[in-house]
Amino acid sequence: MTKRLYHGAAYYPELWDEEVIEQDIKLMKEAGINVVRMGEFAWSSIEKEEGHIDVSFFVEIINRLYHHGIETIFCTPTATPPIWLSYQHPERMYVDNEGRVMGHGSRQHVCTNNPYFREKASIITDQLATQLGNLDGVIGWQIDNEFKCHVGECMCNTCKTLWHQWLEHRYQTIEQLNNAWGTHIWSQYYHSFEQIPQPGATPFLHNSSLQTMYQLFSYEKIAEFSDEQASIIRKHSTAPITHNGGTFFHVNNERLYESLDFASFDTYADYKNYSAYLFNCDLWRNFKSSRNYWVMETSTSYSASLESYAIPHPNDYLKAEAVASYALGGEGFCYWLWRQQRTGCEQPHGSVISAWGKPTIGFENVKKVEKARKEIEDSIITTTPMQAEIAITYSDNARAFMKTEPHQNLNYRNLIIDFYKNILQLGYHRDLIPEGATLKGYKVLFTPFIPYLSDEYLAKAEAFAKNGGIWIVGPLTGGRTEHHTIHTNAALGKLDELAGVETLYSYPFDGTGSVGEFKGVKAPLSLWSSLFHPIDAKVMGTLTEGISIGMAFITERNIGNGKIVMLGSFPTGDEGELLLKTIINHYANEQGVTVKAQVTEGTIIVPRQGNGYLLWVIVNMDGKGGKVQLPYNGTNVLTEKTVEKGEHFINGYDYQIVKFGQD
Q1: Burial class (CB in 10 A: 0-12, 13-18, 19+), 89
Q2: Domain ranges in the chain?
Q3: What is the DSSP code (8-state) at residue 359?
């Protein structure tokens, strides 16, 4: 349980003079900023010349901010190596999959696996932790900034050597790799690990195994870099450590956060796409479930660069974002950035204060966030989010598999958000959980869009079902091995046997006119889909139109005290949403899921548990206002007035907190 709620912004005092810094501190206090994040791009300011590290400026700034009630999360500045590290050293630079060597500038231009970079990164991190680690104002650390945001898998010579070592560790012998990858296809057989290429330019497509394994290799190497930085910091500081991640970046977030203390993310979701914002909150809450997460970056109004810009938020939307995040388990809500940058490639980006020191279009909305933070803080810090009864498994490894095999531009992130928003719209409290998470406390588990399911996951999910849960598997799940090849014992490998089915066909439904029916509801079906013959299962959904009429796309098998349900295809369009929601409601009702609310679309309920009482934090996210059905009489915490059970209205982008139970 958190002790306070933080409201902050990214701050770059190294870019401004003393007069501006004094003005910034005054304006921060006016805006209600109680924490800043800094240092992330300051390597050239701290170490202008190689070997001459001077941290005194930041020591003074941190102490001055703390004196004014503003705490600091300090960042290691390794995302922007200075010119002395990269100039005339192409061997240190990032190389893309077309063989292009990055030049100095922007950020992430150096390969994080390069040994010289690693050495220098370790030295500056050690110095920062030594000199800043015990300052009262430093409450946390952020490692680097948005790993693999602008770059994917590096193809430099350092990475090539590490790639071969990684493969040898994974496969032990070249024969085992050849067998696993099936390299006799197109004469891709290798005689040694050193012969295996990186997935650079080729006339056609790479072997799927090579393409996916290189992504997993890259995932592991960037996580190892994070581990190394965290280990250095812990020698000198007890403050918790994080990294500001995202689902767009080329990382395995579950692996990345293993060695970190709390999870945080950056988001610039359009206000119309609020479900993507809530998706992040529900996911990051579960990467480090022992601690509250942070929104480390979001825009006060709009994001922008020299080349692009986003639509500004409507007034009051920022307040709804903040309250929703705090309610869903967020401890900090921070902006990028405090003062608009007067130079560089992100000059047009939204901020709290303009480059010339005046409030921006977002400033008044920042003040509204601060008013809301103060108003809800006591309610939030004395309660915790309730245990959800519905979980959806999220997998960055699945994202790698789908990047290799996108068919017609399939995108894992978009698919799972589309799936998630149907559960959100039905009013269910829900968790997005990584593959390794416990399933304790859940009643219904969804596992969509994960091509490869590990033996560990299959065993865990089987046990979940046997103990009384309903496990709903698919679509696009289980059809690939760990090496990104096709099963040869059954279409979905072990999953066929567990589900009591024989998967007869897997083919793309788009363009075939396929329509499926479940519980009297019909809808078009889409994506690469699977059809089942029941062996020890019951048919629940069949095709009524298309080229496989009468065949099953939904089955269920009783196993122990629960069920395994196979969902072989993804319903599409408005009718598809109705069908998918019918499936969700059917199995949630069968399981007696009660942690939900009756709300109109665009409004969310976040249930939080206190000591002998229940809180509902109600937030309207679409600006249209909404209706909510209160199940009991309660008390409006903000007005201290009694509210009766039944239908209540909430205004656009507004929030309410209702307490049920003891006074």
Answers
A1: middle
A2: 27-33+277-380, 39-261, 390-590, 598-661
A3: B
Express each pLDDT in 531-571 by its tens digit. Answer: 999 999 999 999 999 999 999 999 999 999 999 999 999 99
Positive/negative CA dihedral, 282, 283, 288, 294: negative
pLDDT digits (tens, 9 = 90+) for 369-409: 999 999 999 999 999 999 999 999 999 999 999 999 999 89
- Asked if residue 222 lies in contact with residue 121, where contact means CB atoms within 8 angstroms, the answer is no
Distance (Å, rounded) from C-alpha 109 to C-alpha 132?
Answer: 27
Among 422, 449, 459, smallest CA distance to 588 is for: 422
- What is the third-level CATH fold of 598-661? Immunoglobulin-like (2.60.40)
Q: What percent of the chain has pLDDT over 70?
A: 99
Per the annotation, the verdict on 405 as an active-site residue is: no
Enter the CATH code of domain 390-590. 3.40.50.880
Cβ-contact 566, 473 below 8 angstroms: yes
Alpha-helical segments (H) within 554-630: 573-590
What is the pLDDT confidence band of residue 3, given thresholds at 50, 70 and 90? confident
Map tokens 């994001």 to a residue: 303
CA distance 494 to 451: 13
Residue 321 is among the residues annotated as catalytic for this protein: no
- The whole-model pTM stands at 0.97
Q: How far is CA 462 from the centre of its chain?
A: 26
Neighbour-count burial of 586, counting CB atoms closer than 10 A to its CB (0-12 exposed, 13-18 middle, 19+ buried):
middle
Q: Residue 1 pLDDT more than 50?
A: no
Nearest to 196 by CA among 168, 156, 220: 168
Contact 1, 20 (CB under 8 A): no
Of the listed 40, 71, 146, 405, which one is catalytic?
A: 146
C-alpha angle 363/364/370, rounded to 5°? Answer: 95
Structural fold of domain 39-261: TIM Barrel (3.20.20)
**Cβ-contact 617, 657 below 8 angstroms:** yes
Which of 47, 71, 254, 297 is the catalytic position? 297
